Amino acid sequence: MWICQKISTFKIAIALSVMMIWKLMLPYWGEASEYMEMAGAVESERVEKHVVILLVPGLSFNEVNWLYECGKYREIWHSGAVSAMNVKPDGPYSYLNNIVSLSVGKRSSGIEGWNSFAPDENIDGVPVDNLFFQWHGISPASSIVHPHVHILQDKLSRSSYQATAGWLGESLKHLGVHRFVLGNADLRSENIRYGSLFIMDGDGSVEGNLHGPVVDNAGYPGGKKMDADTIYQQVNDIHNAFPQTFTVVEWGDLFRLYSERYHMTKDHFARMYETILFDLEDTVHRLHGTKAEVWLLSPVVNAEAHKEKNQLAPLWIWKENRATTGVLYSDTTRRYTVISNTDITATWLAMFAGTQALNKGIGRALHLQHADQGAVPFPEIQAAVAEMNDVFVHRGAVLSSYVSALVAMLILVSLLIWLLVETSRWKSIACTLLLSGILSPWWFLVTSPWGTYFSPYLYVAVILAGSCITAYFLGRAVKEPFSFACFLFFITLLLDVAGGSNLTQRSFLSYDPIIGARYYGIGNEFAGIVLVSGILMVAPVFRRIHGDGRGNYVLQWLLMTLVMLVLVLLLGMSVLGANAGASLSAGIVYAFITSRLLFNNIPFWVKAISGSAVFVVLLTVLYLLQMAQPESHIFAAFQQLFSGEWTAIWQTMVRKISMNWKIFKISYWTQLFITSYFFIGIVLWKRRRSRLMETENFLINGCIAGSLALLLLNDSGIVAAATSMFMTLCVCYGWSLRKASGT
């Protein structure tokens, strides 16, 4: 009996020890175990799967449009799935920076001197395999050598996005997928071999043939030409040798053509342009003869397209069944017409390991929507890309002229108020100008589908004229025109965002997919406007229930509770606004209003403790709002918080602060920010709000609190603070003038 008890105790002790060791070592084993699970799943269900990436640096939608219209193989360009891709890196726009970002699934940048080499090549006269041994202490393990891989890894690990080079190749290796790179984009005086970045592992190892598909041809730029027959033969050999393969073909002819563009005559360039595009089409056609899924991917557009602001790169995918036709949908951008560069590696990994695999990028796998499910044909993709390009090209001119007009209006109205305040005619003109300023964002929103049909300055003139005419009639037809104008914008934005953001996505005052800071939800320009509009639109009702009794304060609080609840949901929900800073700002305004209405006489220290508790509650509410699909960037930030990734969180905060400082130095909105805050400061100092009713003063204070919160909590806080304070100042001036004139 005693022996049995000892054995049982011994077993329990062993079990507890194993559990403790497992708990302690789990963080270190986690990554390896996930790789083992992926590999095990593949071994149990191994099927033949081949992917070929035709990487064409220099390819833009100009070339894709030409191929669609003039190509010899019509069936190629009328099948597959196509989308535009934002390839913006974390740094200057370049082939290297762009492809590093694509390869790691996060915005990143490369390092000086990066390249791929064959073992028999030299760097500064030293054989590259010897150099690799001198720097790494081991000999290269593959036919493609990356002697600078450790420097790239170190730089990426210290970057603001904390990327990892080679993680996709590492994952594919553990999944049993054989990886190869073919070709190069070498110039006369510089070697360009970046395709291997996609599929090298963490040690920089990958197999391939950099020179085999590239043949000498004196008639081509750089004296080199990609040979379609060789590419086809080598890809076919790879497919016949292994059941699962991932091959990158770096097709450098177009890149070489544009590198020598300014040394060529126009006529000869035009001839070679067509010749090389036909060569590209021939290569695609030959690859269609393999059993692989084929991707035509551009990591960087050519210099001419970039100069034209045509910066979205084309992506075209043909499944193994070449007749498959459709469009690509991105969960990251929530669009069919444009995807993010962070989605590419996630999609490739999902092809072999499923969507639950270890993804070290921040993107999500793309979805192919087939034509019979309502896919968008290529001409509609062309039109959408053209519209996005037009908005990007003219955005600067539109915003600069519009913001300058608003600043001039504020200065003019301020002078009218201070110098000619007793003249009724000037009061009426000032009121109309102020009301037109409040209505102008609404005009930008509702006219967004037609904004690109006008020249930039004509469009701004139409907006201003429409705003003035609307303000003139609204000021005479409605008893509370300023609150009504705020309500008009609020309800229009609410309905548009709830209905898919068709207007918001296309407006000059909204986010720009080519800039890529945001693809969905409510941008900071509109966020500042809608926050204060929601507060100011209830002024007539707020006045009606004003009184000294406790019951009146409770009714006012209930009214504001309803409004702020709608604002928090609108701004914070993943499927609606997805704007964390604006949602938290709305919560802070609500806390301010609650404090002033119900707890105005409690001690300051109690308010401070309560405020901290309220902020925690706001974060909790914001997290709960992200539970609805699809996932957003806010949810990703919460995941970092819960995972204890404090370095990443700190770097995100630093990045957002630096972004605000950069915007302050270069943005057009800085003019409006400084002007609005300057004049609201004068208003507070001179106490001109004394003409307002107590309820109006209260609401203006709430708007000022919201504007300050937006300034501190948003990554583009300058923008949101500028638009919100502009609206607040206009309404404050307008109410003062109407009260002074007895209306």
Task: Give structural attributes.
single chain, transmembrane, transmembrane helix, ten-stranded mixed sheet, membrane, Alkaline Phosphatase, subunit A, 743 residues, 9% strand
Tell me the number of helical segments per DSSP (H or I, 4 or more residues long): 26
Rg result: 30 Å
Whole-number total of structural domains: 2
Task: State the share of residues found in helices, binned by percent.
Answer: 55-70%
Multimerization status:
single chain
Helix/sheet category: alpha/beta
Q: What is the CA–CA distance across the termini?
A: 99 Å
Shape: elongated
Q: Which stretches of 5+ consecutive residues score pLDDT under 50? A: 1-44
Overview of the molecule:
By secondary structure, this protein is an alpha/beta fold. The chain has two domains: 38-114 and 163-376, Alkaline Phosphatase, subunit A, CATH 3.40.720.10; 384-740, no CATH class. The protein is built from 26 helices and 14 strands. It has helices at 2-44, 61-70, 74-77, 95-104, 128-136, 149-157, 167-174, 228-241, 253-259, 266-287, 303-307, 343-353, 378-419, 424-446, 456-477, 481-498, 524-536, 539-544, 550-572, 580-598, 604-625, 633-642, 646-666, 669-686, 694-713, 717-740, and strands spanning 49-55, 80-86, 122-123, 126-127, 178-184, 207-209, 214-216, 224-226, 244-251, 293-297, 313-318, 325-329, 338-340, 367-370. The strands form three sheets. Strands 1, 2, 5, 6, 9, 10, 11, 12, 13 and 14 form a ten-stranded mixed β-sheet that branches. A two-stranded antiparallel ribbon has the order 3-4. A hairpin with a 7-residue loop joins β7 (214-216) and β8 (224-226). 46% of the residues are buried.
